Fold each of these.
Amino acid sequence: MTGPADPAGLLALAGRTALVSGSGGAIGAATAALLRAAGARVLGVDLPGHEPPAGVEALPCDLGDAAALAALGPALAARDAEVDLLVHCAGITRDAVLWKMDPREWDQVLRVNLESAFHLLRLVVPAMRRLRRGSVVLVASINGERGKFGQANYAASKAGLIALAKSAARELGGFGVRVNALAPGWIDTPMTARLPEEVRKVALAESALGRLGRPEDVARAILFLCSDLSSHVTGQVLRVDGGQCTA
C-alpha cells in the first residue's frame, strides 16, 4: 500500500500544453493565467485584439469563422505545440425571446459556443490519442441544464456542450483522455454586467452561498479537472454556481 500522494504534485501541469479558447475574456483569462501558474505552456485563442494574460501565447482566431478555425492546425504545428489540455471558455450571448430572435442570432451563438468546440476537439484529439493522455473541459452553464427565459440559443448551445462532453468522454476514454463539462452559474464578468440589475438580484437570491461567482472560482475548478487530482473523473458535469442549481 502506497502512502498519500503530494497534492501539489497532483496539481502541477509541468510538461503539459494547454489550448484555452476565449482567453481574452474574464473566465478564459483567469483560466489561462492559472494553468500557466501551474506549469503548463498555454496558448490562448480569441478574436484579434483580445489579448490573453502575460506569458500566454496568443493565437488570434474568430471562432465563428470556419476558415479561421481550419488555420489553427497549421498555426499549432508552426509553434511545435502538441496540445494535451483543451479548455473551451469562449462564449457569446444574443438574448431574445424565441418570437423576436433573428435566425442569424441563433446561428451565431451556436457557431461560437458549440460548433467551435467540435472543431477544436477534432484539432487536438489526434495528438491526445497518440500521447494517450489528455484532459478536455468544455465550459457550459447551468442554463444549459435548466433553460433560461430569453436565452434559447445560449441555453441550447450549452446543453449541446454537455452532450458533446459526455459523448467524447465515451469515445476517448480508451485512449486515456478525459472529457468533462463545467457549468457555472452567475459569474461577475463584463458579459453579465450588461444584464439588468433585477436579473442579478434573482441570481444572488438563488445562491446557497449568498454570493455570486468570480472568474477565479471557475478557473480553480478547471485546474482541478485538468490536473491529476481528477484522474478518475470523466463524462461529468461539475457545477460552479454557489448552489444556484441544486436539482
Amino acid sequence: MLVGPTASGKTRLGVELAERLNGEIISADSQQVYRGLDLGTAKPSFEERHRVPHHLVDVADLDAGESLSAGAFVRLADEAIADVRRRGRLPLIVGGTGLWIRSLLRGIVEAPPVDPELRRRLEERAAREGREALHAELCRVDPDTAAQTSPRNLVHVLRALELYRLTGQRPSELKARHAFAELRYDAKVLGLAPPREELYRRIDERVAQMFVQGLVDEVRAFVSRGLRGAAQTKALGYPQALAVADGRTSVAEAVRLTARDTRHYAKRQLTWFRADPLVEWLAWPVVAEELADRLSRMGFRGETG
C-alpha cells in the first residue's frame, strides 16, 4: 500500500513500483472512481494507465446516480486483489482516502445506521445556523475528529455528531478501538510525505494546471447533464470552477481558493495517516528503483512479467 496526502507523488511512484515489481494498481481514491471527474481528481493519465493496469478508476456513473461507500469499495477491492493475485501479479493499493484504506485493512467500523429523524434535525440546523455551527459543536464534543474534518464537509460532520448522539461515544474513540482490529491482509503500508514547502509547491502547481487544462469546462459539462447538485461535484476544485462558470468569480480567485483548501485537506490527510502505526514513512526524496529493490527482497513482487 502506498498512502499519503494529495499531490505527494503517489500516482507516479505507484506506476514506477508496479512496473518494477510486476504489479497492478488498485486505486483507493474516493473521487477517482467516478467517470467524468477527471481533472479535479488528478486521475492517472492515459499514458500511466497504459503502462500499468489500474483497477477501481472510472467504475461509478454519476449520471446513473451511483455512489460508492467504504463498504462497496472494500468489496470491489477484495475482488480486484484476488484477481490480480490469481494472475500472479502484485496488488499495489495507491490512494489517499484514509477511511477506505483503513476499512480495507481492518474491516468496516461497526456503528449504528443513519437515524433519519436525527439527521433531518441536524440538516435543518445546518441550514438555519450554517455548517460552521455544527463543526463548532463537533469541536466541543470530539476535538480529534473535528481536527480531521473540514467544516465544508457537511456529510462527515453530520455523521460524526450523529454517532456521538446515538452511542454516547466520541467517533474518535470508536475509530481508536477499530485500529486494534485484526488485519484482513498482510500488507506493507508505505507513507509518502514530501517536506511541507515542497508539498505546497506541488499543490499550487497542480491546481493551476487543472484550471489551465479545462476544469471549468469539465464542470460546465456536469451542469449541462443536470448534475450541478451531485454530492461528488462538490469535491475540491469543483465548487470554485463552478463559480467561474457561473461568472461569480475569476479564474485567479478560484485557483487561489482551491489551492488553499487543498493544502488544508492535505494536512488532514497527514494527520489521519500519521495516527496509524502501520504506516512506514519513506525518506524524501524516494528513489523508485531503490525502493522496488528493497520490496522485492522482502518478497513483494509478482510472479510474472
Amino acid sequence: MPYASVPDYSHMGIIARIPALYRAILIILFGIFAFDLMGVFVRILGEEFPIFQISALRNIFGVIPALLFVMASGSIAGLRRICTPYQIGLCAFRGLSVIFAQICYYTALSHIAFATATTLAFAGPMFITALSVPVLGHKVGFWRWSAVILGFIGVIVIMRPGADAFEFYAILPVLAAVGYAMASVTVRLFHSDVGSSEIQLVTQIFSLVFSVIMLFIFAEPLPVSGSTDWLKFLMVGICGGIGVLCLVTSYRLVEPGQIAPFEYLGIPISFILGYVFFSEAPFDQLIPGVFLIIGAGLIIVWRERHINAKKETGEAETS
C-alpha cells in the first residue's frame, strides 16, 4: 500500500535542513524507545491490574495519537474511502490481531525477563515473510526462507524447550509476533487510495472495542483510584501510540530497507531498561539466540532491498 505524500517540514527551520534519512533514523529510534518504555509501564501495571484492563486502557488512550495523526495529515475526509464492507472487515480483523498480540505480549512481560520478552517479539519479520505467501501470494525463495529458518532456530535457542530453564510464558511473545505480523501483512490488502492514517485510526477503534469486550468477559476491572496509576495507564497509551506514529512516519520518509535494521536497536534498549527498572540482565538466556534473530531480520531486509533494486532496473527475481 503506497503511503501518503511525505510531510512538509519547510516550516520547521533546522529540521527541514536535516537529510530525510537522518530524520527517519532519529524518528524510528524515538519510536522504538517509546515502545520499550510502554513495555516498562505495562510490566509495572501488570503487578496490580489484569492484563485485559491494561490492554483496554492502552487502546482508549491510544486513540488520541491516532486521531491527531489523521487530523495532522488532513485525511479526515478520507475516512469515507475506507467505509466499505471489505475494508471495514479488514480493519476489524487487524484490530483483533492487535488485541491477540497485546494480550500475549503483555502477559509475557509480567512473567519473564523484560529483555527476553522483547527479543522474542522481534521474530515478527520472519512471520511477515512467511505469511506473505498465503495472504499476499508472494513468492519467497531460498534466501528469505533461510532467514525464516535461521530466526526460528534463534527463537528455539532462547526458549530452550525441554531444558530446566524453559518457561511456558516464553511462547507468548512469539505468538504476539504472529499477531503483529498478521496486522502488518494485511495492510497491503487495502485499496491504494486509502491512506495509512485512516487505516490506523479505524483499526485502533476496533482494537478499543474488542479490548473492552474482552475485559468484561475474561476479567473483572479493578478501580484505578490514584493519579499515579492513571498516569501510568496514560503513558502506556501515549507511548504505544507515539511508537506507531514514529514507525509510520519514518517509513514514509525513506525506503523501508534503509531504516528497518535500526529497529533491532530496540533489543539493546530493552536490555538497558530491563536492568534500570527491574535489575535484570538475562545474557545467558539470550545469547547466542539473539544474534540469530537479528541476523535473520537483516537477511530479510537485504533481500527486500535487493529485490526492489532489481524491480527498478526492470529485472524480475524470486528470492
Amino acid sequence: MNKIAFSEILKDKKAVFFDMDGVLYDSMGAHADAWNNAFRFYGIDFPQERVYENEGRTAQSTINLVYRQNEERDATETEINQIYSKKTELIEFLPDVVPFEGAKKLMEYLKQQGIAIWVVTGSSQDKFLDALLNDFEGYVSSERVISGNHVKHGKPNPEPYLLALKKSGFNSDEVIVIENAPLGIQSARAAGIFTVAINTGILDDSILWDSGADWVFKDWNELKAEI
C-alpha cells in the first residue's frame, strides 16, 4: 500500500477531531489497569486486551458488556455505580497521565493552517477533562469537546462524531478523525469521516485496519516526522 502524506490527508480539511485517551494522552495503560482491577474487586475478569478492544465505550456500556459476557445479563444500576465508582477511585491513585510528545506540535501546526481542533472522547471523568483543557490551553476549548457526558450512545455508535459534526457546523468531508481504538474508528467511519489511526496501544495494526481505518500510523513518531 502506497504511503499517504499527512499533508495530503489534510488538504482542503477544515477541522480535525481528536480522540483523547490513547491519542492525545498516554493514558490507556492507566485506564486498562483501573478497569481490570475494578472488575476484579467484584470477582469479574476483564483482561487488559479486552479493555483496549472496547476503548471508547461509555462506562455503562462497558460494564453491561462485561456482565453479558461473564454473567449473561445486564448489570443492575447498583452494580454499574459500584464498579464505575471503584474505577474512578483507582484512577485517582494512579500517576497523572501526560500528553504524547507530538500532540501539541500537531495542534500548533493545525492552528497555523487555520484548521479547527475538536476532541471527541468517551471519557466522562472530570479529572481527565479538566486536564485536557489545562494541558492544551490555547488549542482546546470546552465548547469544542464532546465527552461521554454529551451522548446516549458511545462509540462504536456514530453519535459522538455526528454530534461533533452538528455542533461544529462542518460536513463529514471537511473533517478528519484521529483515533487509536477499533470502536472509535468504527464510530468515525460510520459518521462518514476519513479516519487516521495512531497505534499507541497493544493491539496489532491489522485490527485497526480491519476496523475501517483509512490510514494507520504505527506510532506518534511516524506522524510527528511529517509535521
